[in-house]
């Protein structure tokens, strides 16, 4: 009888120990869950709410964007000065026309390279005709993409003359895959991004404002 009681006591002790181990395991798992690193879902949430680093975005215009060439320029934070100038010159409707047009689009940094006060002076209402002349000097009739421009340069023995809507000419050259434009004053601008296509033409981004 004593042996039977002792056996029952040992069995009870084993069962109690097992329950305690299960409880400890559950508590440990809960603690681990609280201190575990973020899951993929949590990381995705943080990424979705993180601020956008616009300084890392390239090119200056979105090649996948839709719309005409004015829409493309308007959607680029690096071409706000150009868009303001186009509006001040009354050329928005013209550049939204059927075209096609080829636009060599200076960036904000390109306008900043001009002598102090030049941009502000051109934006004055009294200088509207001068501003229009500068802007249309950056526009060529037709759809002159990079391939067509390269062919013209090769056919010209290393350079090509482009007649602008303003009436003046630009000289295009290619060297090692880099295309440059020289204006009437001898200033040279480099094409930094080519073939941004809109519904009514193509834009090539340049780093210097061209002057007739």
Structure, briefly:
The protein is α+β, with helices and mostly antiparallel strands.
Primary descriptors:
seven-stranded mixed beta sheet, 9 helices, 2 domains, 212 residues, signal, single chain, FAS1 domain, Fasciclin domain-containing protein
Account of the protein in words:
The protein is an alpha+beta fold and 212 residues long. The protein has two domains: 2-48; 66-206, FAS1 domain (Roll). The chain is 43% helix and 20% strand. The chain is built from nine helices and seven strands, in the order H-H-H-H-H-E-H-H-H-E-H-E-E-E-E-E. Strand 5 and strand 6 form a beta hairpin. Residues 1-59 have low confidence and may be disordered. Residues 66-210 form the FAS1 domain. It comes from Luteimonas kalidii. Pfam families: Fasciclin. Keywords: Signal. This is Fasciclin domain-containing protein.
**Count of DSSP H/I helices:** 9
Q: What is the subunit organization of this protein?
A: single chain
CATH topology of the largest domain: FAS1 domain
The succession of helices and strands, N to C, reads HHHHHEHHHEHEEEEE
Instruction: Please state roughly what percent of the residues sit in beta strands, choosing from under 5%, 5-15%, 15-25%, 25-35%, 35-45% or over 45%.
Output: 15-25%
CATH class of the largest domain: Mainly Beta
| Broad shape | globular
CATH architecture of the largest domain: Roll
CATH H-level superfamily of the largest domain: FAS1 domain
What is the typical, i.e. mean, pLDDT? 79
Q: Please give the number of β-strands.
A: 7
Counting helices, strands and paired strands, the structural category is alpha+beta
Q: Count the domains.
A: 2
Helix percent reads: 40-55%
- Uncertain segments: 1-59
- Main beta sheet: strand number and arrangement? 7 strands, mixed
With strands numbered from the N-terminus, the spatial order across the biggest sheet is 2-1-7-6-5-4-3
N→C terminal distance: 118 Å
Radius of gyration: 34 Å
């Amino acid at each position: 009888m004593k042996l039977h009681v002792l056996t029952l006591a040992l069995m009870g002790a084993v069962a109690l120990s097992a329950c305690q181990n299960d409880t400890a395991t559950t508590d440990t798992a809960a603690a681990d869950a609280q201190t575990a690193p973020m899951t993929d879902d949590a990381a995705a949430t943080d990424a979705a709410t993180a601020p956008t680093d616009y300084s890392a975005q390239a090119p200056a215009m979105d090649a996948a964007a839709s719309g005409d060439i004015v829409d493309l320029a308007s959607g680029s934070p690096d071409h706000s000065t150009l868009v303001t100038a186009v509006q001040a010159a009354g050329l928005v409707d013209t550049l939204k026309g059927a075209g096609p047009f080829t636009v060599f689009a200076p960036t904000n940094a390109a306008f900043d390279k001009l002598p102090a006060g030049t941009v502000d002076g051109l934006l004055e209402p009294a200088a509207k005709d001068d501003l229009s002349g500068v802007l249309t000097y950056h526009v060529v009739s037709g759809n002159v993409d990079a391939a067509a421009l390269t062919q013209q340069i090769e056919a010209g023995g290393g350079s090509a003359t482009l007649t602008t809507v303003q009436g003046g000419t630009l000289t295009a050259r290619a060297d090692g895959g880099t295309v440059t434009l020289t204006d009437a004053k001898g200033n040279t601008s480099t094409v930094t991004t080519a073939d941004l296509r809109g519904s009514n033409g193509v834009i090539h981004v340049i780093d210097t404002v061209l002057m007739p």
